[in-house]
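Morning F.,

Quick status update on the modeling queue. The single chain you submitted on Monday has been processed. Sequence for confirmation:
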Amino acid sequence: MEIKLINIGFGNIVVANRIVAIVSPESAPIKRIIQEARDQGLLIDATYGRRTRAVVIMDSSHVVLSAVQPETVAHRLNTKETPLNEETVS
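Structure tokens below.
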């Protein structure tokens, strides 16, 4: 299984295979998820003091806050990059 890393802003990276959802932080249910993660010690704030624009929910129940738009993170997730050590099969 290939591990793909996604930049979520300011040099912070998460493993793409572990992402469950990338959502906007404005709704009440998402705010509740953020608060519950904070209370349980599962919140990772990667905003560097900037406004939270995306909430990345991981399969480990960790919640990662990002200052990058959800659409930008999703675009980075869908972008195919060629691995550096790719060998051609002949």
